[in-house]
Write a sequence for this structure.
């Protein structure tokens, strides 16, 4: 068993106002060797969850187990974990080698052992040439790799990563993302990975947990979250383009569930035909595909994604939108749970 | 030129003008503050016993270096200099250590404890030194500690003043929390975190506190005056006083002694300044 | 979907911080404050209690102190000299503290940028603080000497009136304030650090908007530096009681007409010239309460303006 969180509760109390619930009834299990991504909007409590797992913040109620051991009251240093932060948290006054070796030295590991361990970690992360340099001389990606080397050197039971890619340039992000995944697979270590970027979540996670307002809305594989989101919120949150959520009125019904349809599942039709008709307000070409913003007479906005090879219609022109009923999702309300 | 470009040219011109103004002002400030030291040095080169100068005399007509020898003969200069050095070399490191430990504790403590510690610091800070003269003397006399030159260094064990503690607390507070957290996860003990993370990263503050403590102990006059009775125990700052009762025409002797009392400290400070030039990226 | 657990846990409302459940750094960080706390208790706490005790006694340094109840305090109430000395301290503080603070801030703002000229000037500003107290005081004895002193001579050379520094009470008080103000190395260092901490982007943005120097100072620099500066002012009030003592002792000896008899000097005389350690303790305690009251007033202002939250 990798990481197990049972019934976590945490509330912040400010002197004058009501307590703010940061985490409510959170249960999460990360299997051994699994990469679990915790994703959610800012302020959803995902960082709090990570920090509580690390021992940097105390839970008001609940239990945390790491590697099968109850660590709820253990100090951060006694939980057999490693932390990787968004700002890399490298000691600026130490060289790369000294940064990596920091924990070993703190634990009193003999110097010869340290040298070997550091060399091994450096090789695994391609840092051998940089060992004598200082963090300020390194690029963002290199710095993150140093942070990873420091984290892995003592083979902890779990890695906790708090938005590790957020400070990197987009091109570096892709590469470092792959390196993290590769490292995790090689080490076979459980990873709890927090991010606000759902693309990262879909790309990296063995499983994903979506957090909103301190609660876990859904836990599942990327495919499960994409094809069967359990709430409308997740439907909009997960996926390169947010799912279109149409109230019953938009489809000419008086009442009924909110209908969800992914932009990539829609097709253009002649004006007047199909489920909806509207005016193309904006056209966003992006290589192989084009995204169209369509506005209907009742001000409903809908996103459509079509292959560019189909021909790009002129902005301002009228078009119909159609889709297969089998691709529809139904929700109780605009943020609510799935009904079908 | 576009409006934007014009504005930029105007701004640059204004900055350039003000930079020259600033440089001039800085120069004047430097001169004004160097004035006392210069006067001291110049005054020490005046031949004693001469009648007062007719008007403003920037440099005496005859430069006389004999004052230094004479002054050194009037007070046990060597011994007192040694006392000063002894006091400072003990008090400064101890002050830095104790104050930085306490500052670190304040920065790391949980809010309730931190408020308490800062409260204590502020309370002690608001006590005038004069309130401590009588009771400390009585206490130290009872303990039989009043005839050692080092007694004057005693406040160092409480960091000399809570002000330094607060300075350190502020500096440690500014270090990104994530550095401390990573160190904690890496199983570093609190002492190790202080030694390997906090203290090295607050180097400018360390030098500032060391400089301030150095100045305080080197020049400290009142504590030796109250606590030490034997002239041989006196630091140089107090030994100077013996020369202060001289009549004005003999002031150059006093100036010479003052230069001798100030020079080692000034030189040490200047040397430390060069060594301390803070590295941009480590500055907190 | 949320996974089921065997025993649902309910949140406990408003549970106070539970030591057993809170993870912490290995060993508590507050342990590092112990040397400071212990030493403070020994070197400040105990003397303070001793002083409070002595304030109710007669004690001359030998034998044992004899308890005299409120006698000292009755004496204090009618001791004109003491209240006069307190007034003197206040007057000099009223000149010196604004002067010192303005000098410290002004020099910090002028000299904070990196350049060799500034570096030299910064050293010059701090150097007077390196000069030992006695040397500094007696340097000014020379500087202000009506016959030999460079300052009166310079003033006369420019045709300006030179006040009788040692003969005119007001001039003597002003002179004392001046002597205390020019040794502001500590305040300068702190103001410098405070200025350096401000992010440059704010001033750049202001300059881009065409903000003038004074506007920028008033609306950006000063408010951001306010917490540290208030701490400085607080420290200064207490420090000034100390820094005026030595010049008053060595230069003016409290004269003329006791105009520069500052409170600490009076305490010193009672304690070490007259040997009245009991009464001197009474005076010390009164001084302490006064200083504490002023500091407390400042702290309340600080708290009200929520500046302390920056600490």
């Amino acid at each position: 068993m990798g990481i197990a969180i049972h019934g976590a509760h945490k509330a912040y109390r400010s002197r004058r106002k009501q307590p703010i619930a940061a985490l409510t009834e959170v249960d999460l299990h990360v299997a051994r060797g699994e990469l679990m991504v915790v994703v959610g909007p800012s302020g959803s409590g995902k960082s709090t969850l990570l920090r509580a797992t690390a021992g940097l913040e105390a839970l008001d109620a609940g239990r945390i187990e790491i590697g099968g051991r109850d660590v709820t009251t253990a100090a951060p240093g006694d939980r057999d974990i490693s932390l990787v932060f968004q700002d890399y948290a490298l000691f600026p006054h130490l060289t790369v080698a000294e940064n990596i070796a920091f924990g070993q030295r703190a634990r009193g590991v003999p110097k010869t052992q340290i040298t070997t361990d550091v060399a091994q970690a450096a090789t695994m992360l391609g840092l051998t040439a940089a060992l004598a340099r200082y963090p300020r001389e390194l690029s963002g990606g290199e710095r993150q790799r140093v942070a990873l080397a420091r984290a892995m050197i003592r083979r902890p039971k779990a890695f906790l990563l708090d938005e590790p890619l957020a400070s990197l340039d987009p091109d570096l992000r892709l590469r470092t993302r792959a390196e993290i995944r590769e490292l995790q697979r090689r080490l076979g270590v459980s990873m709890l990975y927090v991010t606000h970027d759902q693309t990262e979540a879909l790309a990296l996670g063995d499983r994903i947990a979506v957090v909103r307002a301190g609660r876990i809305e859904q836990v599942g594989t990327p495919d499960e979250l994409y094809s069967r989101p359990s709430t409308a919120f997740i439907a909009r949150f997960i996926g390169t383009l947010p799912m279109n959520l149409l109230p019953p009125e938009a489809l000419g019904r008086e009442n009924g569930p909110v209908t969800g349809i992914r932009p990539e599942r829609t097709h253009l039709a002649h004006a007047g035909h199909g489920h909806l008709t509207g005016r193309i307000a904006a056209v966003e070409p992006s290589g192989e595909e084009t995204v169209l913003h369509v506005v209907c007479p009742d001000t409903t906005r809908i996103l459509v994604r079509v292959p560019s090879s189909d021909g790009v219609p002129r902005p301002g022109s009228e078009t119909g939108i159609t889709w297969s009923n089998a691709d529809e999702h139904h929700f109780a309300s605009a943020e609510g749970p799935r009904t079908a | 030129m576009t409006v934007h470009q014009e504005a930029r040219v105007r701004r640059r011109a204004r900055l350039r003008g003000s930079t020259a103004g600033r440089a001039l002002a800085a120069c004047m400030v430097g001169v004004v503050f160097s004035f006392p030291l210069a006067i001291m040095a110049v005054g020490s080169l005046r031949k004693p016993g001469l009648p007062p100068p007719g008007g403003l005399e920037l440099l005496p007509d005859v430069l006389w270096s004999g004052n230094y020898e004479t002054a050194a003969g009037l007070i046990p200069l060597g011994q007192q200099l040694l006392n000063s050095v002894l006091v400072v070399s003990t008090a400064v490191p101890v002050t830095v250590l104790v104050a930085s430990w306490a500052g670190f504790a304040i920065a790391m403590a949980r809010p309730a404890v931190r408020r308490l510690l800062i409260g204590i610091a502020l309370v002690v800070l608001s006590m005038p030194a004069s309130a401590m003269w009588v009771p400390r003397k009585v206490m130290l006399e009872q303990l039989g500690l009043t005839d050692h030159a080092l007694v004057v260094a005693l406040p160092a064990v409480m960091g000399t003043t809570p002000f330094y503690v607060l300075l350190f607390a502020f500096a440690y507070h500014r270090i990104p929390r994530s550095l401390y957290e990573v160190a904690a996860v890496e199983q570093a003990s609190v002492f190790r975190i202080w030694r390997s993370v906090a203290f090295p990263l607050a180097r400018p503050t360390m030098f500032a506190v060391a400089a301030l403590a150095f100045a305080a102990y080197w020049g400290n006059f009142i504590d030796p005056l109250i606590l030490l009775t034997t002239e041989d125990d006196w630091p140089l700052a107090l030994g100077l006083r013996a020369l202060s009762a001289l009549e004005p025409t003999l002031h150059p002797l006093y100036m010479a002694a003052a230069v001798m009392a100030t020079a080692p400290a000034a030189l040490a400070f200047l040397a430390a300044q060069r060594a301390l030039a803070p590295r941009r990226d480590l500055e907190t | 979907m949320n996974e089921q657990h065997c025993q649902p846990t309910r949140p406990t409302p408003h549970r106070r911080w539970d030591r057993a459940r809170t993870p912490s750094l290995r060993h508590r960080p507050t342990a590092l404050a112990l040397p400071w706390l212990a030493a403070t208790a020994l070197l400040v706490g105990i003397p303070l209690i001793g002083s409070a005790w002595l304030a109710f006694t007669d004690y001359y340094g030998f034998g044992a102190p004899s308890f005299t109840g409120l006698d000292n305090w009755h004496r204090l109430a009618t001791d004109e000299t003491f209240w006069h000395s307190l007034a003197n301290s206040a007057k000099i503080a009223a000149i010196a503290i604004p002067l010192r603070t303005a000098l410290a801030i002004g020099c910090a703002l002028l000299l904070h940028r990196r350049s060799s000229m500034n570096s030299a000037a910064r050293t010059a500003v701090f150097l007077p603080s390196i000069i030992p107290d006695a040397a500094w005081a007696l340097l000014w004895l020379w500087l202000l000497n009506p016959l030999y002193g460079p300052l009166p001579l310079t003033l006369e050379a420019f045709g300006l009136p030179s006040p009788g520094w040692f003969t005119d009470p007001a001039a003597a008080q002003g002179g004392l304030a001046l002597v205390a103000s020019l040794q502001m190395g500590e305040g300068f260092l702190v103001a410098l650090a405070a200025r350096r901490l401000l992010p440059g982007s704010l001033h750049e943005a202001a300059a881009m908007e065409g903000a003038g120097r004074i506007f920028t100072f008033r609306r950006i620099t000063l408010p951001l530096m306010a917490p540290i500066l208030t701490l400085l002012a607080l420290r200064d009030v207490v420090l000034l009681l100390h820094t005026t003592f030595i010049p008053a002792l060595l230069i003016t000896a409290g004269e003329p007409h006791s105009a520069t008899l500052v409170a600490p000097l009076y305490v010193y005389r009672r304690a070490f010239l007259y040997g009245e350690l009991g009464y001197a303790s009474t005076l010390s305690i009164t001084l302490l309460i006064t200083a504490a009251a002023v500091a407390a007033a400042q702290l309340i202002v600080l708290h009200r303006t929520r500046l302390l939250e920056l600490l």
The two ends of chain C are 44 Å apart (CA to CA). Chain C touches chain B through 104 residues (CB under 8 Å).
